[in-house]
């Protein structure tokens, strides 16, 4: 997972025209096992409440062929992500990549539902910078169609600062760092 996360990270930096940016951040990964037992009344329970992931990327392996992961699609509501095979991975963009990319990579608002008859298991690999790292929005001419540099949409802050803001304000945390 670490090798895949690092390759995705380098590809994203190349796309953002910031290939050497990785030299300034100490990157870490954490693996989390999620277990969602079957629930006799799934309309009265939720596996994981709606949220965004905080770090750069989350790579998710849905180990059982059970639906449950949903993302909020603008204008359409909650949309299920069906496992397409046992080896498929889902990659979510997190808040810090949203900030670093100056909004070029939007964060993914998602939730997990429980199933009435099937137990669901997933593995999540969270990838991002250490807590003392400074996140500075990257400015690129990709931000508009006329080739001019666009001003940053977010102020620079440390990972620790952002985590504290998000813990206090949840999905409204971006409004406190928007310029």
UniProtKB/TrEMBL annotation:
SUPFAM superfamilies for this protein: Clavaminate synthase-like
Highest rank taxon of the organism: Eukaryota
Alphabetical list of PROSITE patterns matching this protein: FE2OG_OXY (PS51471)
Gene3D superfamilies documented for this protein: B-lactam Antibiotic, Isopenicillin N Synthase, Chain (2.60.120.330)
Chain ranges of the Fe2OG dioxygenase domain: 27-129
Pfam families assigned: 2OG-FeII_Oxy
Matching InterPro entries: IPNS-like_FE2OG_OXY, IPNS-like_sf, Iron_ascorbate_oxido_reductase, Oxoglu/Fe-dep_dioxygenase_dom
PANTHER family: 2-OXOGLUTARATE (2OG) AND FE(II)-DEPENDENT OXYGENASE SUPERFAMILY PROTEIN-RELATED
Name of the protein in its database record: Fe2OG dioxygenase domain-containing protein
Organism of origin: Datura stramonium (Jimsonweed)
């Amino acid at each position: 997972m670490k090798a895949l996360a690092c390759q995705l990270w380098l590809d994203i930096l190349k796309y953002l025209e910031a290939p050497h940016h990785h030299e300034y951040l100490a990157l870490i990964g954490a693996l989390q096992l999620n277990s969602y037992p079957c629930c006799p009344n799934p309309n009265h329970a939720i596996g994981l409440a709606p949220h965004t992931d905080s770090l750069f990327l989350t790579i998710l392996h849905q180990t059982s062929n059970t639906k449950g992961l949903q993302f909020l699609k603008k204008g359409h509501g909650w949309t299920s992500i069906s496992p397409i095979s046992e080896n498929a991975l889902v990659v979510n963009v997190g808040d810090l990549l949203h900030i670093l990319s100056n909004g070029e990579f939007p964060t993914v608002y998602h939730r997990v539902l429980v199933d009435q008859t099937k137990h669901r298991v997933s593995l999540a690999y969270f990838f991002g910078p250490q807590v003392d790292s400074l996140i500075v929005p990257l400015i690129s001419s990709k931000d508009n169609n006329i080739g001019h540099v666009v001003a940053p949409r977010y102020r620079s802050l440390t990972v620790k600062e952002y985590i504290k803001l998000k813990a206090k304000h949840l999905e409204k945390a971006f409004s406190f760092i928007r310029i």
